[in-house]
Every structure is written in structure tokens, then in C-alpha cells.
Amino acid sequence: MLQIGELAAMGTALLWTLSAMAWTSAGRYVGALSISFVRLVVTCGFLLAYGRSVRGLWLPSDADADTWVLLGLSGFVGFFVADACLFKAFLMIGPRLTLLIQALTAPITALISWSCLNDRLTPGQWLAMVVTLSGVTWVILERRGGERRSGQRSSDDSRQIWQGILLALVAAVGQSIGFVLSKQGIGQYDAVAATFIRVLGALIGYILLISIFRHWPAMLATVRHRRVMATILYGAFIGPFLGVILCMIAVRHCHAGVVTTILSTMPVLVLPLVILFHKEKVSYRAAAGAVLSVAGVAMLVL
Q1: CA distances from 163 to 83, 264, 268 (A)
Q2: DSSP code of 58?
Q3: Which of 35, 119, 159, 181 is the most buried (most CB within 10 A)?
């Protein structure tokens, strides 16, 4: 129980890595906005079933007003603004580079949490964060350097890469704000019900956006796509449902900056997946950076 927050964060990182691969696969068929919205609707189904069978409540009606506001805002910023940018970045620059950029979420979250909640990190935790993020940075710099030396990218490809990087950076800031709001709002409230409130907050943003740009036909087309829906069902269960529940448990039990540092190891976890499914080649230097990241997480957990 002493390390339940860190262990929950490690479980979240694994589940979100697997779901990121699922979103990237499905997004190639129907687009980022459709995936973002439909997976939350599917997640609502899981949350409704869980709430009714376990808590005896279809909706989180037992939450007070402050909990609804803070967690709702957390979902709007973290699930809507951040994830809309994140999923578009997945399609533009791929899951590996996008997840690497998400490493910035950890220091941003730590700074926001310190300034807004006076939630301080110990010197040992700061050191572990530096070690972890150094390993992740090593991997991304090695990868980008190899791409520049190849000289095979056109100007259009380069523009798309930088647009994807910008979207990933916006997602990192949005996720940081979402984590801090979650830390403030969850208190001792049920983690599953808290997740439901965050999802509902995000759905408000998506419904407005889809209505303004009249994208409802695309949403219906996504639902009719059997292969995509099968992937979304799988991704929604392990990501927005199980993964976010573990994330809420993690932010309740430890510093938000520690949680996001552990989540930043997703690029390390994704390495064997991109090797297996995308046939990417990973250098010894990238592997060394991955080992350094794991060492940093070990310093946080042990």
C-alpha cells in the first residue's frame, strides 16, 4: 500500500501504450476526431455498466459540486483539448515520437502542482525525474538525428512533422493542467466515478466541436466500420476505462509530477511494439536511453 500510487502509474503507462497503438491503427481509417469522440462514448458504456453493477448508481450523482467542477474541467482540458491534439499528432508523426514529446508533461505538471497546490517534490524525486527524462530525451534526440542524416524527407514531410510536434506540445500542456485539476478534485472520491465525470466533461467539448463543423456523418460512418469499432472497443477498455481509473488512483496517492514522470516511460514501453508491428529499427543508443529511463522510474518507486 505504501507504493500504490507509483504502481498504479506504471499500470497506466502500460495500458496507455497499448491503447496508443490501437488509436494509431484505427485512426488511419477514420481520422483523429472520430476516434477521439467514439472511444469516449464507448468508455461511457463501460463506466455506466460498472457504476450500476458495483456502486449501484448509473451516474456519479453522489459527487459534490466542487468535485463535478474540478473533474469536469480536468476532463475538458485533458480528454478534449489535449487528446484532440494528441490523436492528430499520432497520425502526423506516429505514436513513438508523439509519446516521446509527452515526456514534457512531467516537469510541466510538477511546476504547476508546486505553484498552485504547494505540492513539493523531494530532492530524490527531482533527481529521479531528471534521470528518467534524460533517458527519454536521449532516445528522441538519437532518433531525430538519424532522420536528419538520412536526408530523405521532403519539405512537406518536414512541415507535417513540425505541425505534429506542435500539437504534441499543446497536448502535453493540456494533460499537465488536467492532472493538476484531477489531483485537486478527486480527494477521496471513487476513482471510477471520477473518471466518469472527466469523460462527461470531455464529451461536452466534442459535441460542440462536431456540431459546429457538422461532422456527425463521419461519426456515424465510424460506428458502421466494423474493423475500426473492434479496435475502438479494445482501446477504450484498456485506455480510457482501465487506464484512466488506475491514473486516478495514482494521482490520489502520490505527487502528480511523479505520476507523469512514470507515464513518460511510454516511449520505452512502445519500443518492442513498434519493432514487432511497425518493423522499426531501434539502435543500441536508443536502447541505452530506454534503460536509463527505467532506472529513473526504479528510483521513484523503490
Answers
A1: 15, 21, 23
A2: S
A3: 35
Amino acid occupying residue 230 = A
CA distances 44 to 38, 158, 182, 197, 222, Å, are 10, 38, 18, 10, 17
The C-alpha angle with vertex 270 and arms to 248 and 221, in degrees rounded to 5, equals 75
CA nearest 51: which of 208, 254, 190? Answer: 190
The pTM of the full predicted model, rounded to 2 decimals, is: 0.76
Residues 6 or more apart whose CB falls under 8 angstroms from that of 73 comprise 181, 201
Tell me the average confidence (pLDDT) per consecutive run of 10 residues in the chain, 302 residues long.
Answer: 78 88 80 86 92 88 92 92 84 76 79 78 80 75 51 65 90 90 86 91 94 92 91 91 88 81 76 69 73 74 58
| Total of domains in the chain | 1
Angle 81-82-86 (CA atoms, 0-180°, nearest 5)?
125
248 Cβ partners below 8 Å, 6+ apart? Answer: 182, 186, 191, 192, 194, 195
Q: What is the CA radius of gyration of the chain?
A: 19
Q: Is 235 helix (H, G, I), strand (E, B) or coil?
A: helix
Cα–Cα dist 182/248, whole Å: 7
Closest CA to 40 of 239, 211, 177, 183: 239
In the chain, the N- to C-terminal Cα span, in Å, equals: 13
